[in-house]
Each structure stands twice: as structure tokens, then as C-alpha cells.
Amino acid sequence: MNDNRENSTPGPGPEGEKVVSLYEKHKKIYVRPVTGWWATWRWVFVWGTQALFYGLPWLQWNDRQAVLFHLVERKFYLFGMVLWPQDVFYLAVLLIISANGLFLFTAVAGRLFCGYTCPQTVYTEIFMWIENRIEGDRLARIKLDKAPLNGRKLRLKLTKHALWLLFSLWTGFTLVGYFTPMHELVDNLVTFNFGGWEIFWILFYAGFTYMMAGFMREQVCKYMCPYARFQSVMFDPDTLVITYDAERGEPRGARKKDADVSRLGDCVDCGICVQVCPTGIDIRNGLQYECIGCGACIDGCDAVMDKLGMPRGLIRYTSENALARKFDRTGLLSHIVRPRIILYTVILVLIVLAAAWSIATRIPLRADVIRDRATLAREVEGGKIENVYTMKVMNVSEAPRAFLISVTGLEGIELASERRVETGPAENREVTVNVRVPPEAAPKGSHKIFFNVVAEDDAQVAVHEKTTFLMP
Q1: Are 336 and 401 found together in one domain?
Q2: Statement to judge: residues 369 and 348 lie in one domain
Q3: Residues 402 and 348 in one domain
Q4: 32, 61, 77, 185: which has the fewest C-beta neighbours closer than 10 Å?
Q5: Do residues 426 and 437 share a domain?
Q6: What is the tens place of the pLDDT at every residue in 281-298?
Q7: Separation between Cα atoms, residue 30 and residue 280, nearest integer Å
Q8: Which among 336, 362, 388 is the end of a domain?
Q9: Range of the domain at 76
Q10: Domain with 447 in it: what CATH number?
Q11: Cβ atoms 65, 180 nearer than 8 A
């Protein structure tokens, strides 16, 4: 990958020495709007991801919010499934699936995530759309920024930033709606009676959305995002990446009247590919870590080729091998299926199937047993030995249920407390359980016993919890 963005400036040392800066001096990038195949797909993903993000908190399921990570109740609702803190395993599986999917997509076609679904890319696209509607196209924005401050410039700038701020605040509000029920947030919005942490996270997320999508933009991709730094590890010569066909395009040059163009390549050096790039790079210098794979340069170049009556594809998605060996489309696609891709795909499918099987066979009941440490063991009426436990019975289903408790493990063991526990939908009930055994049932020491919790209406819904019984 080429990186020719270092700044060299004369230093205070001996004559001829230069100080090389590790950071490029920031220059504002004025991105030119572009239309085409890849731009259309970018907006499809912008609309799709944001419809999910802004719409899910309003979706109802079983008279509750369909997707809610309720921190106060310590329950996560995902449509018909209720997850408890004990189900953190599923979060780990989700992270593994996401990581493996990212590796697979990157090995196949480079930085698809960055170019189409990364929040930084999506929100930057939305902010630039607002900017274009308020301030005008690329040339109009350049002219406006160079103009002295006057009433028109102040009005346009204030309008743009006001819309950016409103959008950012709504984004922060929506994010908090995943952790606090949306109906409560709306009620609090009317009375402005938010809790402290809700205000903090709304302003925190809104502030970062406003700053990163409105001001930092490509700086996040170039300096803050770690993905750009290790993407080359996941690339190989058959990975599809955005590539400039130098053999066809060089030597580049403008088509002037009465000029001999027979010695020129197809690139007319119009600079459109640079003007439409959201990170401001020149793809003709080769693949660079700043490239997010959005395809804007492909659309821009194809539009120029159409006007000149030349074939498209001077800049295109292709692979290093395909470009060097001049593969046709069939040869290019045939090299996508290779051992690395097969391995990633098999692993991803197996993990997804295992997770789906685990969820499908998941027992809608949890039980935790904790010994009452204030009363380890005591003698009660009849000379029996009693241990006291605290049992948490969690009804994971969204229907009210009653559960029956029994205990086994020692001869003559019995419950001396309520055996039936009623729970509401997705409710956690904590009960005290007294267990007694005859003094001759076991010698002094710790002994294994088992609590059995079974749904009254379905014997298949049952758990078997192990604990210990202390004999004094």
C-alpha cells in the first residue's frame, strides 16, 4: 500500500536536513456528490441501517418494547426471547459471529463494512447530504468558505449546524431508548424529567456524532480506526479491492483539440476520482490504507468514461491476480472460492447453527441456589438437621408459570418450606428454602444434594441444581 502523505519541512539542523512529520497537516476535504451503482447501494445501506436503528425501539412485541436492554431490571428483550445476565454466553457468541463475518467479507471484497455499514461512514454520508442541501455543491461550498462573513454565510452555517445538532440529539435519544423503555423516555421528554445517566448518554452520544460526522470525518478513518491498520493482514492477491488499471490508463492526459492522443491512456486526468473520495485520496497511486472501499471513485470515473464514449472499468473492483493475469469476469469470480474463504465460511456456518440450536433448545427456566451464610446448620424439632438456602427462580418465558421444588441426595431429605413458586412473565422470584434431614442420614461434613425445579404445566421445563448440605 502506498502512503505519500508525510509532510517534510526544513528543520533547524545542518543545511539540507529535513524534519519528517508523522502526521499530515489537516486540509478540509470538499467531497463532490456522485451518482451511480455504488452510490445507490451506499444509500440503500444508509436507509436500511438507520431504519433499523431508529425504528426498533418503537416496535412493540407482547405489549412491550421488542428490543430493549433493560439495565434496571437486568433483562435483555429480543423480540420473543428474554436474556438474563446468566446468558452472557450468547453475547460472546454474537461477538464471535460478527468477527468471523468481518474476516470473511474482508477476505472476499476488502473493506465492505467500512464503505457501507460503518456508523462513521453512514453518519458522515447523512451529514454531507444535509450540507449539500444547505450550502450547495462542492464549488459552492468552497466559495462560501472563502467568502468573508456576512449575513448569508452566517445564516447558512447556523442552519446547517442546527440541523446537525438536532439530528445528533435525536440519535443520542434513540440510543438511550434501547436501554430505557422508549415510552418512559418520551414521557420524560415532555416533562424534561430525565435521570442523570440518561442526560449524560444522550449528550455524550449526540456530541460524538456531531463532532465525528460533522468535523473529523476522514480523520477518524485515517488516525483513529484500527481496522485500517490491520486490513492488509486479511487481504491476499485474490481479494477484491478498488483498483486503478494503470496499464489501460497511463500515460494520463487531457484530450485537447488537434492533439495526438494515440500515445495517451484512457485516464484524462480530470481528478473526479479524487474529488468524490470521502477520504481525499488518489486511487491512481495504488491501494492506500485510507481507502474505505465505498466505490465513489468507480462511479465518478464511469460517468467520465460514458461521456467520452470509452468502456467503463478504468477504476473497478478487481483483484491483484485478476489485474496481472487479465482474468475475465468468470476467472475473477472463480478465484473468490479458495481455501481461506471456505474455512471462514464453514466456521461461520457452524457457529451460527450451534447458536441457533442452543436458542431453539433453550429451557425457559433458570434457578440459582445460594446458602444462607448466617445459618450454616441447625438442629430443629425432632432432632433433624436443617440448612437454609436462598433460591432465585427465573421464569425466562413471557407467560406466567408455577414451579414445583423438590430436593434429593440424602436419605430422608425433605423440604420444610413452600414447595410451589408462582412467577409472572419474565419474572425473577427469590424464595427461602429450608431443607431437613434426619441426624443419622449422613456423617459430619459437607454432602452433595440436588434441587429439582419443574414447571407445573410442563415437565420438560426443568432444571437440576447442585449444592451442598452441611452436617454439624
Answers
A1: no
A2: no
A3: no
A4: 61
A5: yes
A6: 999 998 888 899 999 999
A7: 8
A8: 362
A9: 1-362
A10: 2.60.40.10
A11: no
Q: What is the 3-state secondary structure (H, E, C) of the chain?
A: CCCCCCEEEECCCCCCCEEEECCCCCCCCCCCCCCCHHHHHHHHHHHHHHHHHHHHHHCEECCEECEEEECCCCEEEECCEEECHHHHHHHHHHHHHHHHHHHHHHHHHCCHHHHHCCHHHHHHHHHHHHHHHHHCCHHHHHHHHHCCCCHHHHHHHHHHHHHHHHHHHHHHHHHHCCCCCHHHHHHHHHHCCCCHHHHHHHHHHHHHHHHHHHHHCHHHHHHHCCHHHHHHHHCCCCCCEEEECHHHHCCCCCCCCCCCCCCCCCCCCCCHHHHCCCCCCCHHHCCCCCCCCCCHHHHHHHHHHHHHCCCCCCEEEECHHHHHHCCCHHHHHHCCCCHHHHHHHHHHHHHHHHHHHHHHCCCCEEEEEEECCCCCCEECHHHCEEEEEEEEEEECCCCCEEEEEEEECCCCCEECCCCEEEECCCCEEEEEEEEEECHHHCCCEEEEEEEEEEECCEEEEEEEEEEEEEEC
On whether both 356 and 372 belong to a single domain, the answer is no
Same domain, 317 and 434: no
Q: What is the mean pLDDT of each run of 10 residues along the chain (472 residues)?
A: 43 58 75 94 95 94 89 86 84 90 89 91 96 95 94 96 97 95 90 88 96 93 82 84 92 75 85 94 90 94 94 93 87 87 94 91 88 82 90 88 92 90 88 91 89 91 91 86
Contacts of residue 338, defined as CB under 8 A and 6 or more positions apart, other chains included, come to: 238
Number of domains present in the structure of the chain: 2
Cα separation, 20 vs 2, in Å, equals: 17
* Rounded distance between C-alpha atoms, residue 455 and residue 163, angstroms: 54
Which residue in the block uniquely carries the three cell numbers 477520504?
Answer: 279
Q: Are 433 and 417 in contact (CB under 8 A)?
A: yes
**Last-in-domain residue among 362, 381, 398:** 362
Sign of CA dihedral 272, 273, 274, 275: positive
Quick check: 409 and 469 in contact, CB under 8 A? yes
Inter-residue long-range contacts of 299-302, CB under 8 Å, 24+ positions, other chains counted? 299/34, 299/35, 299/36, 299/37, 299/38, 299/39, 300/32, 300/34, 300/36, 300/272, 300/273, 300/275, 300/276, 301/272, 301/273, 302/36, 302/37
Does residue 99 sit in the same domain as residue 165? Answer: yes
Report pLDDT digits (tens) over 385-428: 999 999 999 888 888 999 999 999 998 899 988 899 999 888 88
